[in-house]
């Protein structure tokens, strides 16, 4: 069994380290995060998403922001890290962290196509949960976040200017996740570098590359270790055991489903066919909803990094909220349907 687990973990890492996946799947995420830190005006970000911004508007926008991305939790983490690093409010930052991998456009339609009502319920629940998680995080830690990041905002209020140059580069990089063929992805990657070259000074571009590389060194090694461990765990938690535990329509089953899916690692959209198979084997609809909501939002590597970025208290609060809300959404679905 240990040999099988080792083989499973190594095979997943080899797949994860596929050159095309690294170049067109992972690299753009770090370039986006580096651009957020280096090419966007900090004062403008604080104006729209900072602790002093209107939390209802900021959290609402962040909770649906994931709809334009087709990325998993490993790709959304560097973007979240940059937002948090330059002073974004904890409410919109955590809403964005949840919504990114949970409600991307591809996930919405593929879930609906393969899972029917459960797929649509997953997408609607993800938007509501992203907003709820952000609102609660803001309520619990918003004031402390204001003290950390905006002590001088009264004397130096954020400017109203829109950093369109940086946003243009980020938009082109985000578009990589919205197109299908690798050729188009490659063209967009080249275009992003070209636009950066034309619109920014050499020092600004170097700062962009430094920020991206710094985040890569911080996050990627931990992701690799976490992906290996999470993949190896699948050998010790076979699907038949999961079905026995999660076949009943109960909140306890939904909580267990949330916890298991939060520990395991899912590449983008792989949770959909896995959930379909589990449903066919007897998993309850509520546990399926919980599995779909917690899995893409969390993973063993992402939980390690979230705690490292936000601190143990805030990180664990976010993780617990995602797990509890996912289970609750599953129970609500069972009551309605």
TrEMBL record:
Family annotation (Pfam families) = ArsP_1
Q: Which InterPro entries match?
A: DUF318
Q: Where does the UniProt annotation locate this protein? A: Cell membrane
Per the UniProt record, which residue ranges are transmembrane?
A: 20-40, 61-84, 96-116, 123-142, 162-179, 186-201, 213-233, 245-266, 286-306, 318-336
UniProt keyword list: Cell membrane, Membrane, Transmembrane, Transmembrane helix
* Top-level taxon in the UniProt lineage: Bacteria
Where the protein is mainly located, per its record?
A: membrane
Question: How does it sit in the bilayer?
Answer: Multi-pass membrane protein
A GO CC annotation recorded here is: plasma membrane
Protein family membership: Belongs to the UPF0718 family.
* Protein name per Swiss-Prot or TrEMBL: Permease
């Amino acid at each position: 069994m240990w040999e099988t687990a080792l083989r499973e973990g190594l095979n997943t890492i080899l797949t994860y380290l596929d050159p095309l996946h690294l170049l067109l799947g992972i690299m753009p995420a770090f370039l986006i995060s580096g651009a957020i830190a280096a090419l966007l005006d900090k004062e403008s970000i604080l104006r729209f998403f900072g602790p002093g911004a209107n939390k209802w508007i900021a959290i609402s926008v962040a909770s649906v922001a994931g709809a334009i991305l087709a990325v998993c939790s490993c790709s959304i983490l560097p973007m979240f890290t940059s937002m948090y690093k330059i002073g974004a409010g904890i409410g919109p930052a955590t809403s964005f962290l949840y919504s990114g991998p949970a409600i991307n456009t591809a996930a919405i339609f593929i879930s609906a196509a393969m899972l029917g009502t459960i797929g649509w319920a997953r997408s609607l629940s993800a938007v509501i949960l992203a907003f709820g998680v952000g609102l609660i995080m803001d309520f619990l830690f918003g004031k402390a976040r204001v003290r950390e990041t905006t002590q001088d905002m009264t004397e130096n209020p954020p400017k109203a200017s829109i950093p369109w140059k940086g946003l243009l580069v980020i938009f082109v990089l985000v578009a990589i996740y919205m197109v299908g063929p690798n050729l188009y992805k490659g063209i967009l990657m080249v275009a992003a570098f070209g636009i950066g070259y034309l619109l920014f000074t050499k020092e600004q571009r170097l700062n962009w590359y430094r920020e991206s590389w710094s985040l890569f060194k911080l996050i990627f090694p931990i992701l690799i270790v976490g992906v290996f461990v999470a993949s190896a765990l699948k050998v010790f938690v076979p699907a038949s055991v999961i079905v026995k535990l999660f076949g009943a329509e109960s909140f306890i089953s939904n909580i267990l489903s949330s916890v298991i899916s939060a520990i395991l690692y899912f590449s983008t959209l792989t949770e959909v066919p896995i959930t379909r198979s589990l449903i066919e084997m007897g998993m309850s609809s509520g546990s399926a909803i919980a599995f779909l909501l917690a899995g893409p939002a969390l993973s063993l590597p992402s939980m390690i990094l979230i705690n490292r970025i936000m601190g143990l208290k805030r990180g664990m609060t976010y993780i617990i909220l995602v797990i509890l809300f996912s289970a609750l959404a599953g129970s609500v679905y069972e009551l309605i349907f």
